[in-house]
Amino acid sequence: MTYVIAQPCVDVLDKACIEECPVDCIYEGKRMLYIHPDECVDCGACEPVCPVEAIYYEDDLPEQWSEYYKANVEFFDEIGSPGGASKVGQLDTDHPVVAKLPPQAEE
Ligand code: F3S
Ligand code: F3S
């Protein structure tokens, strides 16, 4: 099981979640961040600090964002399991689910 980042993160990228993660498993894409499903230890520390409530335990992911489970998993198809986001840095790519979205308006 894993935590998942959903659509509210897109074009916001607050990054408060990164500070909380004890295993450095939250990776930065171009328009949102992604949680590594195999590196996440389900500690839950990231979930309450996101100001836009983008983070959910996979079983609690709202129906309208159900494809974000797949987006978080498949984002790592090419990079595998680097074992730490800070050494990887920002990746200049996004999952197609995210890349196809129009710019998300600021509130
Ligand atoms: Fe995104 Fe929220 Fe983290 S906006 S970067 S999931 S704190
Ligand atoms: Fe996973 Fe979030 Fe903890 S990504 S390891 S639940 S801080």
TrEMBL record:
Keywords assigned by UniProt, alphabetized: 3Fe-4S, 4Fe-4S, Electron transport, Iron, Iron-sulfur, Metal-binding, Repeat, Transport
Cofactor note: Binds 1 [3Fe-4S] cluster.
Statement: the UniProt record of this protein carries the keyword Metal-binding: yes
Database matches in Gene3D superfamilies: 3.30.70.20
Ranges for domain 4Fe-4S ferredoxin-type: 31-60
Needed co-factor(s): [4Fe-4S] cluster; [3Fe-4S] cluster
Keyword Transmembrane helix: no
Region (Disordered): 86-107
Transmembrane parts of this sequence: none
Domain of life, source organism: Bacteria
PROSITE patterns per the UniProt record, alphabetical: 4FE4S_FER_1, 4FE4S_FER_2
Database matches in InterPro entries: 4Fe4S_Fe-S-bd, 4Fe4S_Fe_S_CS, 7Fe_ferredoxin, FdxA_Actino, RnfB_subfamily
PANTHER family named in the record: FERREDOXIN, OXIDOREDUCTASE
Its biological purpose: Ferredoxins are iron-sulfur proteins that transfer electrons in a wide variety of metabolic reactions.
This protein's name: Ferredoxin
Lineage: Bacteria, Bacillati, Actinomycetota, Actinomycetes, Streptosporangiales
